[in-house]
Amino acid sequence: MRATMPATDSAPLSSIGRSIRSLRRDQNQIHSFPTPHDATDAFQRRAADLLTALLPDANADADADILSLAWTTRLLDSFLLCLEEFRALLFGSAAALAAGPPLDRLVADFFDRAVKALDLCNAVRDGLDLVRQWRKHLAIAAAVLAPAAAAAAPHAPLGEAQIRRARKALTDLTILMLDDREGGVVGQRNRSFGRAAAAAAAPSSKQGHHRRSSSGGSSGSGSSSGLRSLSWSVSRAWSAARQLQAIGGGLSAPRPHDNAATGGLASAVYTMGAVLFIVAFALVAAIPCQDRGLHAHFSVPRNFPWSAPFAALYDHILEESKKKDRKNSCGLLREIHQIELCSRHLMEVTDAAEFPLPDHKDAEVREATKDLVRVCQSLKDGLDPLERQVRELFHRIVRTRTEILDCLSKPHATE
Where is the signal peptide, in residue numbers (predicted)? Predict the structure, then answer.
C-alpha cells in the first residue's frame, strides 16, 4: 500500500525544506506495508520451514514418526498456519492486486481446490471413527487379558475363558478390517461437520430420520436404505483417489509474466495450492477412506524454497505405500499398522493353546498383551486431537474462503 501523504512538487533549497522531505520519507517507510515480493518470499520460506519440520528424523521420539496420529496432527497444524499467513497476505498489501487479473483467477482456482478438500475432511472423519470402532475391539481383548497379564504368572494364570474371549474380540476386529479394506463399510459412514449446525438451524423430521440412519451406519449395522448420505456429505460414488486428483490436477507453477505482474503473489498462491495437495495426499494415505488410492502424480519445480521438503515428504509417503506389509493395509497410519501387528501376533501365540498354558507360552501372551494395551492407549490419546484438527481444517477453509472472496469482491481504491 502506498503512503497517503502527498509528495511535494518543488524541491526547496533551504535546510528546513530538506528536513521536511526527509521526515516524510521516514513516515512513508514506517507506515508502508512490506512490498509484495518481500511478503511472498517470507511466506514461501515459512512454508519451507513447516514442511521441513515434518520430515522424518531418526533421532525423534516415536510419537513423531511420519504418518502417526501425532505427526498427522502436526501436519494439519502446519497447514492451518500456512493458511492463516496466506490469509494475512491477501488481506494486507496484496488486497488490491488480488482483486484484479491475473491474481483474482488464481485465488479463485485455489479456493475451488480447497472446497474439494471439504469432502475429504468428512471422509477422514468417518475413517477416524472407523479406527475408533476398531479400538473398541482391542480394548475388549485388553480388558480381558491385561489384569492377569499385569500380575505374576503363579498368582494369576491366564485361563481358557479369558483367551477365548480375547480371541473372539480380535476375530471380530479382523473381520471388520478385512471388510473395510475392500470398501464394504467406509462408503456408508457419512457424517458431515456441518450437519449438526444445519439441523439446529432448520430442524425437520426428515433430517432427524437421516441423522438416525447415519448413526446406525456408523456402527456397521442397519439397512443399506438407511445409509444414504445427505447432500453435504460424501456419496456412495465418492472416491478419495479421484478427489485427490481433482485437488492436485492441473495445478502448475505461475508463468513468469503473471508472477512479475503480481509482485510474486502468483507464486504464493501456487505455494498454498501445493501445500494443500501434500496435506490431502498424506490424509488419504494415512486414514481409511472410501476408494483410497495414491495415483495422483504431482511434482514441483526445484526453484521454490519449499520444493525439496515437499518432494521428500511425497516420496516418503509413496515408499511407505509400496512396502510389502503395508500395501494392502486399510491405511498407512502407524497406529493402524500396530493394530494389525499386535492383533495378529496375539492370535498366533494363542492359536491351539493348551491349558493351563506352559510357562513360555504364558510369557508370550503376557508380552503380546502389553503391546496391545500400548496400542489402545496410543489410539485413545491421539484420535480425539486429530479429529479436532480435521474439524478445524474444515471450518477454517470455509471461513477463509468466505472472508477473502468477500474482501476481493469489494472495490480497492489506489491510495
Answer: none
Closest CA to 85 of 53, 48, 46: 46
Which CB contacts under 8 angstroms, 24+ apart, belong to 396-400?
A: 396/80, 396/83, 396/84, 397/83, 397/114, 397/115, 397/117, 397/118, 397/121, 398/118, 400/83, 400/87
Cell numbers for 354, please give them: 493348551
Contacts from 198-202 at CB under 8 Å and sequence distance 24+?
198/232
d(CA 62, CA 325): 19
Residue boundaries of the structural domains of the chain: 62-194+232-408
Question: Maximum distance among all alpha carbons in the chain?
Answer: 107
**Residue 62, helix vs strand vs coil:** helix
Residues 6+ apart with CB under 8 A from 267: 40, 44, 253, 254, 259, 304
Asked if residues 133 and 176 have their Cβ atoms less than 8 Å apart, the reply is yes
CB 260 within 8 A of CB 133: no
Cell of 21: 522531505
Rounded Cα distance between 108 and 110, Å, is 5
Angle at 355 between CA 354 and CA 361, to 5 degrees: 65
State residue 405 phi and psi, 5-degree precision.
-65, -35
- Which of 32, 31, 78 is CA-nearest to residue 52? 78
* Threshold 0.85, pTM exceeds: no
- State the DSSP string of 168-229: HHHHHHHHHHHHHHTTSSGGG----TTHHHHHHHS--HHHHHHHHHHHHHHTT-S-GGGGPP
Closest CA to 67 of 400, 324, 314: 314
Q: What tens digit of pLDDT does each residue of 308-343 get?
A: 999 999 999 999 999 988 888 889 999 999 999 999
SS3 75: helix
Low-confidence ranges of the chain (pLDDT < 70): 1-36, 58-64, 93-96, 98-99, 148-156, 182-233, 408, 411-415
- How far is the CA of 315 from the CAs of 46, 196, 372, in angstroms? 21, 38, 31
Helices (H) and strands (E) in the chain, counts: 14, 0
The answer to whether 331 and 285 have CB atoms below 8 angstroms apart is yes
Please give the Cα distance from 145 to 370 (Å, whole number): 9
CB neighbours of residue 385 within 10 Å? 14
